[in-house]
Design a protein that fits this description.
Elements: H1 2-30, H2 34-48, H3 51-54, E1 65-69, H4 75-84, H5 91-100, E2 110-114, H6 120-126, E3 135-139, H7 145-153, H8 162-168, H9 176-182, E4 197-201, H10 207-222, H11 225-232, H12 237-250, H13 257-269, H14 277-284, H15 297-302, H16 325-332, E5 341-344, E6 352-355, H17 358-363
Antiparallel strand pairs: 1-2, 3-4, 5-6
Length: about 375
Amino acid sequence: MLRLAKTILFLGFIALFFGVVAIGFLLILSGGDPVDFARTAYLNYTLSGRLEELNTPAGTDPTERIVEIALGSSPAGIAQQLIDEGLILDTDLFVTYVRVEGLDRELEAGTYFISQTMTIPEIAVMLTDSRNSSIAFRVAEGWRIEQIAEAIDQNPRFGFTGQDFLLVARTDTVDETLVAQYGIPVGSSLEGFMYPDTYVFAPSITATGLVQSLFTAFQEAVGEQIRLDAQVDGYTMHDIVTIASIVEREAVWDDENVMIASVYRNRLEIGMNMEADPTVQYGINGTRGEWWVNITVADYRGVNSPYNTYLINGLPPGPIANPSLSAIRGAAYPAQTDFIFFRAKCDGSNYHNFAVTFDEHLANGC
């Protein structure tokens, strides 16, 4: 009898030992919360049978929809927003997924751009990084202001239209002191001063805010010294940007900016018409289906526009495009040459031959 009691006691001790070990192992495995661990394990098991649903988008519309996630939103609240927007098909599945993957504590407040073609895992990961709450936007060198407007219309993340942008892209939208310093005619377009670059904007940006951002970027990139040096040469910043915009549309390679600028500066200084083809293109003003159409010899005299420098003497009323810093520096600090003419080389390199006399210019023809 005593032996039986000892055996039972021993077996009980063994059971207790393994029970303690099991509990300890469970505590370690569960991070100190076995109830939560068990719940997560159950949810994980539940998800394993719904993988197809997880990876099935809510629809086929690729249009991005703006979803505002407020600070303190719960996974269930976020799921309800997503289903209200038609971006997911099952709130419980979303909540279960973020819980199992440990994303429920990483969901961030912000403005997100989400489409129906995204799956629940893709949406969940996106919502953990509020840096996704931004608009990437590029303004290319040599674009007209209307081309910027077109790019706005092609980007569904903006809360305004290209036309809204055009309506406020004028001098009364920006610092009037700088407008005066730059010599920009009051009330005129800010063509030329919308600095080309790649930007990242908050989704709350307005048309006015965009204009101010591009103008400020111009100011910061160009600096003050160019304006002061231009004044010494008898030019305003508006004049320099006007020349630079023509140079931008003529030059293919940046290292030729100073040479092409020297030709136009030389023509201006001897009272010769600038005779710049891009100004004729600008004067056509998109009426032929494109902004920068190929022109004919007949267009030199046939395009009736104050921007057509074959018809007018001196500078056109303003810039014809938004030039790069390289073109602006070329216009402000041109090469010191006697060249009056230039034309494309015949080797297809997109470089140019330069000439002092018209006979030399003719001799450079292909």
